[in-house]
Amino acid sequence: MKRILLIKITSLGDMVHTLPLVSDLRRAYPEAKIDWVADASCADIPRWAIGVDRVIAPPLRGFKKSRSWSDLRAIFGALWQLRREKYDVVVDVHGVYKSAIVAWLARSGRRLGYAAEYLGEARAVFAYTQIFGPHGDATARHKMRMVVANALGYPLDPVEHYALRVPAPAVPLNADGVPRAMLFHATSVEAKKWPAQRWIAVGRTLAERGYKIQLPWGSPAEREQSEALAAEIPGAEVLPRMTITECAQRVDAAALVVGTDTGFVHLSDALGKPSVMLFTVTDSQHFGIDTPGQSVSLGARGVVPEVDEVLAAIDRVTGGQAGSRETAVRQA
Fold this sequence. Notes:
Its main location: membrane. It comes from Cupriavidus basilensis. Pathway: Bacterial outer membrane biogenesis; LPS core biosynthesis. It is found in: Cell inner membrane. The protein is an alpha/beta fold and 332 residues long. The chain folds into two domains: 3-152, Rossmann fold; 180-331, 3-Layer(aba) Sandwich (Rossmann fold), CATH 3.40.50.2000. It is 39% helix and 14% strand. It is built from 13 helices and twelve strands. The strands form two sheets. Strands 3-2-1-4-5-6 form a six-stranded parallel sheet, with helices on both faces. A six-stranded parallel sheet has the order 9-8-7-10-11-12, sandwiched between helices. α9 (244-253) crosses α10 (263-270). The longest helix is centred in the N-terminal third of the chain and has 17 residues, at 12-28. The radius of gyration is 21 Å and the shape is globular.
């Protein structure tokens, strides 16, 4: 196997979910070149992945919004990058029309994808020459790893390996030695939100324990929510608008991350940070994080976590310690 094309186009959390698959492929085929097609809006994480040789990043989301000539030209440029290589195998672990079209356009006689009943868009199955086998009952990450391992015939390591390196910030973060706790309260789906009063209760308790609370946001409405929470949590900081890279750097420097089912909380777990993920309407067993001594998911479909449960989970992943000055400086 000399060249592999991996297709996972969006979104941020799904990019993180795909990292263990990259590690699997790199261990199975240490000499192979691995390319990854991802939307330009989500391409930072593939670029940080150790083991990926080239990221092809068409601005598909950007063009859908802008309909601009510059975005269209960038898409054609990405197509040229795609077509200039011949792949031994194309692995589509996204399973919608846009990913299937990418697979079909790639120069390869072997294109792997899910069966129609497992695809986000069933007719995307047209692009594949080989269908992944049944994947059984497992997490989203493990299913992805399992079907590719079975299709390509390499043994699967039961441990998930996240090999990535976030670029260092220009100026060290949190150099004052005070541990930061990032609270990712915002989510694009209203039903996924955790009640504000519960965020305030957790934030106040963490502040009492010596954490400085940091509140990120991604839209004007989310900024208002962050400001409202900060007004009730002593010493809380509403962070400025950040790029994906800047936010990832903050996560990498944090002592604790608590948040809803969002990409940055998944990234926190991948970076080995103490992390607690909160679910209210989706399946925590299927999509959650669960690394013993490091991360835990709470709640489920129709089950909203209580404040005491969240604080107990924080104790489990931190050992009940806010973190020493030396630990915080090292994390910076």
